[in-house]
Amino acid sequence: MALAQPFDGLLSAARTGAAWAWEELYRELSPGVLGYLRARGAHEPEDVLGEVFLQVVRDLPRFSGDERELRSWVFTIAHHRLLDDVRRRRRRPVEPSGAEVGADMAGPSAGEQALEALATQRVRQVLARLAGDQQAVLLLRILGDLTVEEVARILGKRVGAVKALQRRGLAAARKELEWEGVAL
Fold this sequence. Notes:
This protein has helices at 7-15, 19-39, 45-59, 67-91, 110-128, 132-142, 148-155, 159-179. The protein is mainly α. Helix 2 crosses helix 3 and helix 6 (132-142) crosses helix 8.
């Protein structure tokens, strides 16, 4: 993490409830976590992100470790909240009512949404074609900036299995892009 404050001081301040410390932690960690949740198909990724940080707030007094361990710990929480979200949706599927359609009119403009969609559409298509574990490994390694060992711990897999999933996932993505004539 590229923190503006020394990590130990930031962690101590966050534990005492200092708003500036929480803002810095959130600013540093939330983009990657949100990207992971979106790419893994969270139904409401911003809501799951909120659940992740609520748990971080609750459990931070019991956390011990350095910056890398904090990042890994937060992504572990995100992975577990994502699994909870998937299980919850399977038990109680939600169908939008007429009132929910167009309820968020204060969001980004249609043009902004179209540009964002074009910027991420191809990456999402390639990721969607990967097996679920390959996708999770690549996203945690890239968006989470986590080591193979950290990813193995989060997913409950052996280090060798994570390496194999990463290798196969990258090979599959490369093959698909090369098939389309994209030079890598």
